[in-house]
């Protein structure tokens, strides 16, 4: 203003040249510093591992967990999830010990650094003493500087958003949020990231090329074969309907029994993947204001440790059992038919109609190819020989007066004389 002579009466005098700042402006205008430092990712596995804790969930999982603790290797971006019952130093230290033992044994490397925030569940005397004895360096961020802890914060956001989508798409109860989180972590390890565009994190972590042919939609209908060793019936159903909730790597599937709440482990399964959900032009508004999937809202104990003195622990999943037929099995789901009010002008009400299926969405089904059995191949070969014999005019194939086989049960004499055995030979 003074240089361009925009106003009158403004005279600026030069100071003594000493560096100074307005203290009142600092008190009133102090802004956060940007996190613009150049970050160089690690190239060696277990050289730096990011750790963060999410929770609490408003609904306890089927195993009793309320917190999710995720370890992310900086070199491979490979995630490992643990579920805790409480937010306490005992639970987090137990998870750190288990992660260290498993990763060092599998990778044949040593865990060197852990980067975490300044939560009391991490920075406590027991955790610091254990890391000091194990030679692990703890690198903590500043208080409430969440942007400086970007890797685990973005990881938690991605996993939790995946949990919401999986529960909404499957329609399973919110108590299965831990299984949905485990599935989200499992699939995230099979998706390439910008840090490793040519490989998936699981391949970088294990050094082996990964196979994703076993992946199926979370919560899809699954039919598991009942092993003959545990099937008490000889003529009853040999398959039971379940819901897919997770994986035991590539070896088997983790299934959920909606009737009993038990977890099943099976490999002999048939999938009915259904169709995906799409938005419609005129969707009806929601009438219920309570969102049953809102299990992630903050609670008063979100940033504080449990005050009841309960020592937390790493939650263990229930041991899976083999598929078993239930006495109350429903072979086919009975859907309620739509009703319409009867009118006096129609003595016979019209049959209710079911809305037609959408034709623009193709059903998702299993991609496994069916292979004919040996009996089917032999039957097809026999039918081909018979057709060829008829075309060649052979007597045994064209003469209808000479049947090829005749069953005794189809003859009247068999019913009149049940104790008499009659043998009929094949005429050729």
UniProtKB/TrEMBL annotation:
Catalytic activity, as annotated: DNA(n) + a 2'-deoxyribonucleoside 5'-triphosphate = DNA(n+1) + diphosphate
Pfam families reported in the protein's UniProt record: SH3_retrovirus
Protein name according to UniProt: Integrase catalytic domain-containing protein
InterPro entries: Integrase_cat-core, Retrotran_Ty1/copia-like, RNaseH-like_sf, RNaseH_sf, SH3_retrovirus
PANTHER family the record matches: TRANSPOSASE, PUTATIVE-RELATED (PTHR42648), TRANSPOSON TY4-P GAG-POL POLYPROTEIN (PTHR42648:SF11)
GO molecular function, one term: hydrolase activity
Coiled coil: none
Any one GO cellular component localisation term in the record: nucleus
A Gene Ontology BP annotation from the UniProt entry: DNA recombination
Keyword annotations from UniProtKB, A to Z: DNA integration, DNA recombination, DNA-directed DNA polymerase, Endonuclease, Hydrolase, Magnesium, Metal-binding, Nuclease, Nucleotidyltransferase, RNA-binding, RNA-directed DNA polymerase, Transferase, Transposition
Residues covered by the Integrase catalytic domain: 37-209
Entry superkingdom: Eukaryota
């Amino acid at each position: 203003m003074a240089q361009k002579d925009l106003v009158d009466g403004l005279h600026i005098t030069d100071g003594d040249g000493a560096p100074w700042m307005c203290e009142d402006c600092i008190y009133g205008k102090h802004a956060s510093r940007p996190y613009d430092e150049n970050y160089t990712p690690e190239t060696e596995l277990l050289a730096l591992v990011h750790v963060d804790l999410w929770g609490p969930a408003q609904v306890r999982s089927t195993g009793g967990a309320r917190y999710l603790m995720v370890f992310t290797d900086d070199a491979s971006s490979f995630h490992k999830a643990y579920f805790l019952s409480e937010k306490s130093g005992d639970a987090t230290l137990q998870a750190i010990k288990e992660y260290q033992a498993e990763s060092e044994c599998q990778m044949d490397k040593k865990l060197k650094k852990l980067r975490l925030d300044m939560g009391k569940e991490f920075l406590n005397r027991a955790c610091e003493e254990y890391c000091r004895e194990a030679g692990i360096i703890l690198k903590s961020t500043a208080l409430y500087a969440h942007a400086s802890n970007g890797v685990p914060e973005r990881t938690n956001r991605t996993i939790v958003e995946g949990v919401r989508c999986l529960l909404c798409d499957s329609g399973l109860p919110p108590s299965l949020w831990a299984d949905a989180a485990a599935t989200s972590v499992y699939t995230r390890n099979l998706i390439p990231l910008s840090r490793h565009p040519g490989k998936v994190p699981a391949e970088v972590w294990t050094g082996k090329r990964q196979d994703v042919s076993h992946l199926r939609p979370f919560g899809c209908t699954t039919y598991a074969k009942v092993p003959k060793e545990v099937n008490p019936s000889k003529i009853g159903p040999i398959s039971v309907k379940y819901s897919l909730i997770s994986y035991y790597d590539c070896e088997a599937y983790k299934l959920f029994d909606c009737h009993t709440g038990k977890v099943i482990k099976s490999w002999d399964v048939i999938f009915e993947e259904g169709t995906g959900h799409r938005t419609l032009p005129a969707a009806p508004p929601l009438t219920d204001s309570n969102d049953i999937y809102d299990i992630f809202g903050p609670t008063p104990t979100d940033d504080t440790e449990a005050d009841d003195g309960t020592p937390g622990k790493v939650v263990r999943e229930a041991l899976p059992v083999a598929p078993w037929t239930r006495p109350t099995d429903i072979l086919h789901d009975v859907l309620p038919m739509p009703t319409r009010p009867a009118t006096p002008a129609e003595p016979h009400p019209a049959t209710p109609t079911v809305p037609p299926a959408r034709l623009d969405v193709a059903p998702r089904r299993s991609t496994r190819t069916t292979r004919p059995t040996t009996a089917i191949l032999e039957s097809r070969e026999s039918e081909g020989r018979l057709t060829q014999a008829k075309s060649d005019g052979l007597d045994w194939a064209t003469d209808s007066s000479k049947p090829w086989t005749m069953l005794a049960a189809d003859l009247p004499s068999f019913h009149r004389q049940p104790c008499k055995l009659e043998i009929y030979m094949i005429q050729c």
